């Protein structure tokens, strides 16, 4: 039922109730309209309520709507069913009364069939109510609850009798003997209410709303019965028959219970003295009722000359029940005493068999009892422990923590104190312990302390080992990156708070040049061995007040605190570089020489730890860019350079997505015949209408990894164009440059093979150019992949040959088809005799090996003539032809006259 429907029904019931109440003011013969209607409307309301409750019971059982109540031990469907039967019993009682009045005018001071039905409704209501609010568990608890409820009912009845029925008793005179028949309903209602009201506080959280609605409906019905009892005794209806609208309201409230609840849990039980209120609800109800009754009876006793016989009867029975209650309390007290004795026995048994140390201590620390486990845990004899205060065994630095124990005696708290202390064992070692200390009370004896202690030395040692592993490197044994970051943060924070002048704080970053090749060639295990050697060398060169850490990979970092002169930091950086390069590292049976690139950064007053470490890293990157074995001190422009490089990488990524890269082709000609034999594909970037050459962005593309997709795009586009030219009977080859990241990228060979298959270009037409550093940085894997390309038929060429990396060993490791002389050699032809001799040697070497030689950077006629005289096969440069679009190549190749050689 929705909210709007519930509101509509509430409005309808409210209007009916108000109309029913209004009938008490409308005369109809000798009585009011309400009195004339009698119990017919209330019987109809009770019947409707019963049917509604039975329907809701079946619905709840079918849908499982009360599953939360069932989880708490309640049964919502059964509760509604019994409440429905109770409502039908009230309906039957009302109908019986109404029919009897139609056909008979019997005495109101007698029990009729209708009264029996109405009285039978109360047990049904109690059963239904206790399905929502179950009885307290255990026979003893139930007996206590019933006795307390009876005391409460007797006290309440005494007040009702004194205030309401006692004057009527005197007025009845000779007919007072029939008063008991009229009091059946009030007495039964009071007993049931006193029995059920405490259960409201005991009800589960999930049924609290239903319990409150049900007890509210019963209170309203009981009020109607009270008014009806008075009507029976005095004759005329009270207030025009107001009892009937009141009872109508009670039945309406009871029938609406399933929809008022809506399966919403009530509020949680309030807490007092650390325990639930439900545990004391019967006692509170009984004590409160007796107290109020005592006050009322005392006041009345002062004013009344005599007391009715029923009052001593109620008081006497209450006293008898109180005696029963007292006997129960004595029995409970005996049970508690037995429990205390059993607890003591269990405690001593537990102490004997526990591996923990269990002590009972006096307030001054003297040992009153000690468990046998002490000898096993700490190696003491029991007599030794009992002879001296336990404080003598606690580490002096930990004695201050024991002050918290005084609060146990001062506040008499039930919560124990947990603390960790170091305790001296019999062998003199200090053991880490964890103790729980609580107040130990025994009747007739002073308060003591119960201490349970266990040895956690192994746990502490494991925790320290974990912390060491967390902040130290497993390969070198040095502090790791996390430790250095935390230490740098602490040092800078201390410097910021210190009022005294301190020296500089600096960080040195050191990277081993060429370490990647060691890992690739010798393996990671031997690489870790080399890192261990490097760490030992660096540790020997670093002063004790500095923190040396492994930053990660082949990088180390040094945090230097309170340095009086900045030059000392630079001197230390140079010294660290020297100890790395001073002698080769022993790796297996090989001597491997290494150098180090070093960056230095100083902390400014406003510099935080993250910025300081980043600056040192930036300086180290700058040192590597300058070459191997350099030391670089951080300057502000370095950070700007890094930011610019990052921004450039972002622009390159967007340009690749937008297709802003395009190709130009530089012809390569046969110097003998002046014919164009092939073209070299060169990438260009159209950045906002400006053509940008590769020297501006290739480095950033390498760092970001964009060179891999960009290189594949260049290869695919160039192969497609040359394939079209060759279909037109142009016998022309193609050269494309490769980077080390392209060669080492996953599935590189498969991608080249796929591009050739898709474009239809023959493999022997394609020449892939690599720098000699590919052979150095890529190691054996690069040579293997280039060899796989040669197996496909692709030609290989070494670009920029002669720049210092070249050796005959490289040419032997990788069979190449061509070598390209670096433009710097060609530029100095005829000007530098040494360069001219080296160029002639390279050309002769190529001819002897049967390798094609291509001279790059031909810009002057005399360079061309000298290369021809030396026997150079091919050449390219601005004198031959500048890089041009594909259409320019088509014009040049078509006429061949464009190359003025």
TrEMBL record:
Keyword set, alphabetical order: Membrane, Transmembrane, Transmembrane helix
Sequence ranges assigned to domain EAL in this UniProt record: 645-897
Domain PAS: 343-413
Keyword Zinc-finger set for record: no
Domain annotation GGDEF: ranges: 503-636
Stretches that traverse the bilayer: 40-57, 78-100, 106-129, 150-169, 175-199, 211-234, 284-304, 310-330
The keyword Membrane appears for this protein: yes
Gene3D superfamilies attached to this UniProt entry: 3.30.70.270, EAL domain (3.20.20.450), PAS domain (3.30.450.20)
PROSITE patterns in the record: EAL (PS50883), GGDEF (PS50887), PAS (PS50112)
A Pfam entry, by short name: GGDEF
Signal sequence extent: none
SUPFAM superfamilies given in the database record: EAL domain-like, Nucleotide cyclase, PYP-like sensor domain (PAS domain)
PANTHER family with a match to the protein in the record: BIOFILM ARCHITECTURE MAINTENANCE PROTEIN MBAA (PTHR44757:SF2), DIGUANYLATE CYCLASE DGCP (PTHR44757)
Protein's recorded name: Diguanylate cyclase
